[in-house]
Write a structure and sequence with these properties.
With 103 residues, the chain is mainly alpha-helical. The protein has 2 domains: 44 residues, no CATH class; 47 residues, no CATH class. The protein is built from 4 helices and 2 strands, in the order H-H-E-E-H-H. It has a two-stranded antiparallel sheet. A hairpin with a 5-residue loop joins strand 1 and strand 2. The longest helix has 30 residues. The chain is elongated, with a radius of gyration of 20 Å. The mean pLDDT is 88.
Amino acid sequence: MCKIGKRQIAHDILAYLVDHPRAEDTVEGIVEWWLLDRRIMREAKMAKEALSDLVGKGLVLERAGRDARSRYRINSVRLGDIKRALAPAGRRASRGPGKEHND
């Protein structure tokens, strides 16, 4: 296991224990519940940041649902731009003159 991975896991275990000082579990339970909980929290934060960037660029649309939670969907007007951004690097470079894409 790489040192960064082990360090991150140790950090996540300790952070979980700080938040849940009475917690006790097996290795399997720690992996399934504690580490998954930390990863979900980390991924949720990064997803919010990524969605904010995508909304800011106009690639994704945001609207408030009845429950006041945001809902996200593709901006179909920008579908061509999105597909070009997702294309492998070689295909993006070979668009030719006048076909540049601004992010």
